[in-house]
Amino acid sequence: MINNAGSVKTPVPDIMEDWNNKLTTAAEKGDIEALKLSLQNGAEIDYQNVGGWTALMLAAREGYLEICRLLIDTGCKIDITGGGGETALMLAAMTGHLEICKLLIDTGCKIDITEKMDGYTALHLAAQYGHLQTTRCLVEQGGASPLVKSHKEQLNATKWAKHVADIIKR
Known about the structure:
The structure is a single chain. This protein has nine helices and no strands. The chain has a single domain, classed as Alpha Horseshoe (Serine Threonine Protein Phosphatase 5, Tetratricopeptide repeat). By secondary structure, it is an all-alpha fold. It starts with 14 loop residues before the first helix and ends with a helix.
């Protein structure tokens, strides 16, 4: 770019965007000190990356319980949906991070949000990926309805849970 004086103008990077990206990277990698530094420097706690995922969603998917606690204690929104409609609870359930699911439930997250593509809930995902304890937690502690049907396969979570239980018995 050339300014009015005719010299080349170097674009200044958006400093906030840089701290926001550092925040989500720190959450995904489990770097709690970098995450704290990003927040101290003004990163938006609910910033959504290119895929629409927040730091909480990334930490939940990767299983970083302490980072999830810190983000929640600092005031992040727990039910933000990503680009595909997924939530932090769905990502924790899909990857079998039971303690993070418990934390999110205890914090008051919505249990039966459905993602956009297949209409799956956290319960569908926990059952589909074989996480029996997480499946139980979502029903018993979270009150997830095993009768919510996905719009893709029209299978309800009870059938998924039975499938998981059958696999574990083998």
